Amino acid sequence: xxxxxxxxxxxxxxxxxxxxxxxxxxxxxxxxxxxxxxxxxxxxxxxxxxxxxxxxxxxxxxxxxxxxxxxxxxxxxxxxxxxxxxxxxxxxxxxxxxxxxxxxxxxxxxxxxxxxxxxxxxxxxxxxxxxxxxx
Length: 135
Fold this sequence. Notes:
Distance between the termini: 36 Å
Radius of gyration: 17 Å
Strand order of the largest sheet: 3-2-1-4
C-alpha cells in the first residue's frame, strides 16, 4: 500500500490541507478531523476528474493507498492544545509554555531545532501512553 502525504497547516482560523503529488487538490476545515474528511473527499473528486479527462494518475493512486498527515508545528500545537497541557509539552520538549504558545498562535515561527524538539516530545509522550497496560 502506497503512502500519500497530506500536509496540514493552520491558516486564518481554519485548518488547511493539500496533497503535494496532486497539484490543486486542497481543502479546509474548522478542525483537523473536518479537514481530514474534506481532503479525502477532495482526493476522490480529483482522481475521478483526472480519470475522466484522461490524465495520468500518480502511481500512488493506481492501487490502494494510505493517507499520512504531516502537520506543521503551529497546526499540531493548535490541534492538541485542549488535549495535552502546556506543562506536559514543556516537560517533554524542554521549550517553555510561553514559547510554545507563541508558536501555536503564529507570533513566532519555530526554528528547525525547536520543531524537532516538539516532534520528539509528541513521540515520547505517545510511546509512554502506548506502553500503558491496565488491569
